[in-house]
Specification:
70% helix; mainly alpha; 19 helices; globular
Length: 483
């Protein structure tokens, strides 16, 4: 039997559609206790990651060998992974500071494993999306899983705002799906913490729903006039994002809306008559008056709902020698700021190649400023915990651990992904337009979301850019067929 026939039979086994369904459907779950015990991870333990291993071995790799193609944005990503591995290997020829009971080799292997997990998510989504029917199937499942996640989060909000607590059965279900806890006045969906829920909304679900709302495309046949399932999910998703009270998450979403507004302002005037263009441009000053007013309204409501923002409009910076750090401390951002500063200090000491994946935590105690040691959270982590400190920003972590070389390759991957997404926007297919907008929105949100989390293991960025990349392969095939 030829190898191609064997691969074709393997990829056509009836077990794969249910596994792909579960893979996409379980994406909102980030830290399931059963998976935590299985993979020995204390935080990021998504059930979709377990399914990823089966799908890669039994469907993705055989499919790529059989008839799949790599998208354009696959090549800079593969280069980034290769460069990161080389830089990490080089780092073993330098002395690494010791830190309590932590083992550098183990930390590096964990970091490399998370990077390969992200790559696996990307390749899986990219390969699956190279067929219009499969892509529609994936979007439909993402919509239904997203709807369930939104419903569960709104139910949490309902019980909190009506009873100031959660019923026992809700806690039992939540603790079966996440090692994280339910929060006071902030809501987590099925994620580990509120910022993770905002992360998955901003990097996967809201970009998809906003893009589909713009194009009018829907993966579902039923619609009520203008109202599609995706448009309904977008409005509810925006509300849920606000309920997370994630400041970075809300800011990232506002940035996405500004990006879309600006692109429409600059490009929608093409083809208009002079009189129409003049009337349209007279609206621009009005819009830029409404936007600051809306932003102030959001900030004011946050001061009433989020204790971290309660002093926002009463902080006095007069006479302060360190106004930025003082402001950060009052807004409960100081810990994050000092970790970023430490990461930049590590980068300044190792600017070209970085210290290697997973090793920044060993250098952080010496890189912390004197102000950092005044913070209770930092002192608890240094003296009462064996956990390695983390930089809490993927951007600064990349600079610290892979230097300007690795960081440049990562930026190259994001740039190619944005260019491919922008190219899809100009496609004739509404499905391809939707995936193009989705990629662009995801990358714009990631500009700020990258200052909130520093792990490669969360799948949402990888899935979004993978689906868009696979759709790009599909668009290229359509052009080649029509040529």
């Amino acid at each position: 039997m030829k190898i191609s026939n064997l691969l074709e039979k393997l990829t056509n086994l009836p077990i794969w559609p249910p596994l792909w369904f579960l893979f996409f459907f379980l994406l909102p779950v980030t830290s399931m206790p059963a998976v935590v015990n299985l993979v020995r991870s204390d935080v990021v333990a998504a059930p979709s990651g377990v399914l990823l291993i089966l799908l890669l071995a039994g469907w993705v790799i055989p499919k790529l060998l059989l008839d799949g193609r790599l998208s354009r944005n696959s090549f800079p990503l593969l280069c980034f992974v290769l460069i990161s591995l080389i830089l990490t290997a080089i780092s073993f020829f330098t002395d690494v500071p010791s830190y309590k009971f932590a083992v550098p080799l183990r930390s590096t292997m964990t970091a490399v494993l998370t990077l390969f997990t992200g790559l696996g998510f990307f390749l899986s989504a990219m390969t699956w999306a190279q067929d219009p029917a499969r892509l529609r199937f994936a979007i439909r499942i993402l919509n239904w899983s997203g709807a369930l996640m939104l419903g569960w989060t709104l139910l949490q909000a309902f019980f909190w705002y009506t009873t100031q607590g959660y019923p026992g059965w809700m806690k039992d279900i939540q603790f079966a799906l996440s090692v994280g806890s339910l929060y006071r006045q902030r809501f987590v969906g099925f994620a580990y913490e509120p910022s993770w829920l905002a992360h998955q909304l901003n990097l996967l679900y809201l970009p998809l729903w906003l893009a589909a709302s713009i194009t009018g495309d829907s993966a579902h046949e039923r619609r009520a006039g203008w109202l599609t399932f995706e448009r309904l999910l977008f409005f509810l998703g925006t509300l849920v994002l606000y309920l997370t009270l994630s400041r970075v998450g809300i800011a990232a979403f506002i940035l996405v809306l500004l990006f879309y507004l600006i692109t429409r302002l600059f490009f929608s005037t093409r083809g208009m008559e002079n009189a129409q263009r003049s009337r349209f441009r007279r609206l621009v000053p009005l819009l830029f008056l409404i936007l600051p007013a809306g932003l102030l309204a959001i900030l004011w409501t946050l001061t009433k709902l989020d204790f971290r923002m309660a002093q926002l409009f009463t902080i006095n910076l007069r006479g302060r020698s360190d106004p930025l750090l003082y402001l950060a401390e009052k807004l409960s951002l100081a810990t994050r700021f000092v970790f970023w500063e430490a990461g930049l200090n590590i980068f300044s000491d190792h600017p070209l190649t970085g210290v290697g994946l997973g090793k920044a935590g060993y250098y952080m105690p010496d890189a912390l400023s004197a102000f950092a040691l005044q913070l209770v959270e930092v002192r608890n982590l240094l003296y009462r915990s064996n956990t390695l400190l983390n930089i809490k920003s993927i951007w600064i972590r990349l600079l610290a651990e892979t230097g300007i070389i690795g960081f440049s390759f990562f930026i190259g991957w994001l740039t190619v992904s944005f260019a491919d997404g922008w190219k899809l926007i100009r496609s004739a297919s509404s499905q391809q337009k939707t995936l193009g907008w989705m990629a662009c929105f995801t990358l714009v949100a990631f500009l700020l979301e990258g200052f909130s989390l520093d792990t490669f293991a969360l799948p949402y960025l990888w899935i979004s850019l993978g689906l868009a990349g696979g759709c790009g392969v599909l668009a290229d095939a359509d052009k080649a067929g029509s040529a």
